[in-house]
Amino acid sequence: MLQPYLDAIDLEGETDLIYFDGTYSHAIRKSAMLGADGTVNVPLMEFRKARVADKGERAVASAALDAAAAHLHLDQPLLYGRIDLVRGSEGEPLVLEAELCEPSLSLPFAKTGATRFAEAMAARLSHPR
Fold this sequence. Notes:
This protein is of the alpha+beta class. The protein has three helices and five strands; from the N terminus they run αβββαββα.
């Protein structure tokens, strides 16, 4: 995978939004892990923190998930997904990654995140679309 370098990573980090069955669950902020010289510049314990995604971030992430589901010709939302965003030069949220297969769902950063994921799986299994 190749990703462009954007200054916002060093300033604001990235925001990862987690969705279950097409519904926003929670988000985390990840700081820049590597310095310009390739060294780790953040203690790993401080690398990720819970945060609330704003309306614009949620709109971009939801659109990315909808586009992925449409591309896959699904008639239902993806069971889970993580959309990683970073701010562009004008402050707009940009998709950095779409993690749709075995993503880290950052469940320890949301009190009821694991419960919401279990509920989404149970609903999908009991009422397949």
